[in-house]
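Section: protein folds

Sequence with per-residue tokens
===
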Amino acid sequence: MATGRVRDVIAGGEPATGNTKSKAARSIQELITKADIRAVCVICSTACLSLFLLEFAGNEGTYAQLYPPNRIGVDPYWVLRAKAWWVLWIVISFVMIPAIAMVSLPGKRLRDCNLSFRGFAQHFWIYVGLFAAVLPVIWVVSLSPNFYNYYPMYPAAGRSWNDFLMWEGMYVAQFVALEFFFRGFLVGGLSRYIGVLSVPASVMPYMMLHFSKPAPEAAASVVAGFILGYLAWKLKSIWGGVCIHCAVAVSMDLLALSHKNQLPWIHR
């Protein structure tokens, strides 16, 4: 009973009671020795498996080996199918596998992955404010050739409305999966055992996922990871993070296309 109380206090952010350092020390020791190590190991092992599968099964090189491009005729949508392969493996790795792991744990439910909509409307202004704060920064960064030559990640996104909408639809889907994995499965799953420390635990692999991106974005991912992770932990919801992540991503693509004069409505 005492162990559960200590765990609930740390996970929920409620101030711990106690008048002496020795009591606090005993409480921490009790938490360490009696925590559900099995559940933590399952969550962390599942995260490692998911990241491994995405890196080696979900990369476009694997798709090219399995479905090489036609060397006789040009296939205008081969690259888009390669991107669809990548998004498919993100959904498998970041949603399906973690969801199975979560519901298999005793006492765990899928909604423990911070899937609550309660209070979403009341707190939505926080995410609007965050988006308003980062939008000028995105515009300045978008002026760099390194940025607009990297985005959109599907090079033919500005070729037509069909290309643009198909790509952005897939792009949004992978951001939903990404938020579920990092701010839902990792933050929500681990917070029961290590409380707010689940946020930095999720930031480390999240930042590493951005190593292939431009350096400013990789650095910014640390700040975004802490902010969105803390909000998901505090509000028990990933949906605000989904909204701002998708809004930022689509804005980045539109700015990059505009700098290259490749917006889809130009080619009607």
Q: What stands out?
A: The chain has a mean pLDDT of 87. Residues 36-267 form one domain. DSSP finds eleven helices and no strands in the chain. The radius of gyration is 21 Å.
